[in-house]
Specification:
Structural class of chain A: alpha+beta
Oligomer: heterodimer
Largest sheet of chain B: none
Strand content of chain B: under 5%
Distance between the termini of chain B: 72 Å
Helix content of chain B: over 70%
Largest interface: A-B, 50 and 57 residues
Structural class of chain B: mainly alpha
Shape of chain B: globular
Shape of chain A: elongated
Largest sheet of chain A: 6 strands, antiparallel
Strand content of chain A: 15-25%
Number of helices of chain B: 11
Radius of gyration of chain A: 40 Å
Number of helices of chain A: 5
Number of strands of chain B: 0
Amino acid sequence: MKNREWNNQVKQVLDGDRELESLSPELRREAEAARRLLLEAIDRRPVTLSAALEARIMARVRGRATARWPRAWRWLSAPTIPRWAMLVPVAAAALFVVFSRGGQQIDRQPQAQAGQRDSVYVRFELYAPRASRVALAGTFNRWDTASAPLVRVGKDGMWTVTLALPSGQHQYGFIVDGRNWVPDPAAPTVDDGFGRRNSVVSVNTINGRIL
Amino acid sequence: MKRLSVVLVMVGGLAHGLAAQGDVRARLVGRVSPELVQLVGTLADSARAAGLPDAPLVDKALEGAAKGVAPDRIALAVQGVFGQLRTAASVMRGAGAAPTTQEIDAGAFALGAGLTSDDVAMLTETADASHPTMAVLQVAGALAALGVPRAQTVGLVRAEVRSGLPLGDLTNLPAQVQAAAASGVSPDAAASGLERAAQAHAGQSVQPKGKAKGNPHRP
């Protein structure tokens, strides 16, 4: 076999690139002969290592097994079959990550931004003819007294601002001339815990309803 | 499954928890005193551990600072909000619900608006798939804030949910009460009228019981 040059089609059959049946009868016989030669060439005798070589190999294997970090890495990365007892803390950890992330998004009251997906535009108005400036502060802007100034409309003393509020319940108040907190006369109010009243607006983005 | 993935999930959860703690404090630093940052941070940790929202605590502290309230009074108000959130969660869970943080917030709002724990429990039980708990509690809280007496508030919301009318009708109730008040009708009179209307609709939508008549065309 060593010195024989095989036909290219026979080589393709031996490589698995071609079906034996596609060859002509003559080449098919040649291919079968080549396959027999290949099978006979395989040495099927059991492999035995010399005692010295085996000792060297085992010394290396044991050395790797006792090293701390490689052992820890193998423990972490080795495929394991999950057991029920282990699945419980894993599921709990996964749920914690998922729900606490969701909760954080819900709890954090972002500053209202136009174009937010689940927000509704709300127009706030206050009649304050003697005011020189009016602002709006509430849970939607972290009670920042400077971020939502109202604009005077005409000469009748009406002040207005329109904000995009995210879904949820918001408490707020108007600040007149930078010091007087005034509740919205057009909205329900609740006790603010400091002896005053906060106005309330509930934005329900399910149907874009404002309470 | 590799143990590495388990470890990564746990480390991620821990890192997230620490980030949430830092987030609460970061929102307060520079706006309130360091002692208040510490107090609100501790309460927020307790709130998260109990499945309560922490944002209302931060909001109350920021509100107090914006209004120029003394720190000790802000501390009391924040503790009051924490108590309301805890009560709302306890009552809602006692009513068989598994409330989200938003629903707990709505329950706390209803309590703050003047409803009792029993009212919140009853409203939680009233909610159904078409009328979610959060909407029911928000509407009830808004009605109470508008001056509708609590017994009437609960009666009206329950009648509205049971009537089978769509969610939009429920969420429109406060606006209807406000419109009535603007025309000189008292909030309780407006609520009574709306409750009667809801009950009448419920009566119409229920098929009268009785012996079915036979088919007159059948021999």
